[in-house]
Amino acid sequence: MTMADFFDHLGEILFLDIETASQTESLEELNPRMQEEWLKKEKLIRTENPDREPGSLYFDRAGIHAEFGQIICVGVGFFQVKKKENKLQFRTKVFSHPDEKELLSEFHALLSKKKWILCAHNGKEFDFPYLCRRMLIQGIALPEPLQISGRKPWEVRHLDTMDLWRFGDYKYYTRLELLAAVFNIPTSKEGIDGSEVNTTFYKEKDLGKIEKYCLRDVEVTARIFLAMHPQPEEMELEIITTEDSKKEPKE
């Protein structure tokens, strides 16, 4: 792939990251049927912590399971190439809304704008399937970039920086933070990390802090992707964040 082809391709990629929380602050707030299902699910999790009380893992672990969690924000970013200025602009924004269905509807509208290539770190095992499940639970039809059923592997336009780093070694798991350190990319873990999202959301009620963390992960993922595709000439990188989530990124 020539440098020109790479940068043309780069503009088609939508980098994303999702942040999730448990559906409710406490297990008792779930409807009884879902409470019963969680306790069954938790039995499998509690093999690691057999002495924990039934239901005690809900607050810490429910958010990673789409059936018991919810998406509280989606961060996205995409590159615009300014060849005359030898510059890359990375435009980011965050979708967040108190109502998950409204949030996902807004994100759905962006995904329906064009045939994006989606890229996330561990996206194939977490972000993409979680988005699909929560959209369907909320009664939202899957947008074209998330429709993978019946498609051949090469027809699915999903990239995953963790998958790219494996180079075929499917036993190999690498944290985003480790790759950032390897490539000397500034950390995204200033303020909070993923284990603190539920507490920040429910106890501190600080969605803004979570949004900033989410957007930092998006930026780090994009920088890692660039580092995995070194070019002969280095271009200046400018980060532009759209504050108003109602405004969609221009193509």
Automatic annotation (TrEMBL):
Predicted 3'-5' exonuclease PolB-like domain residues: 86-235
Keyword Hydrolase on entry: yes
Any GO molecular function: exonuclease activity
Pfam families (alphabetical): DNA_pol_B_exo2 (PF10108)
Hydrolase among keywords: yes
Domain of life: Bacteria
Keywords: Exonuclease, Hydrolase, Nuclease
Protein name in the entry: 3'-5' exonuclease
Annotated source species: Algoriphagus taiwanensis
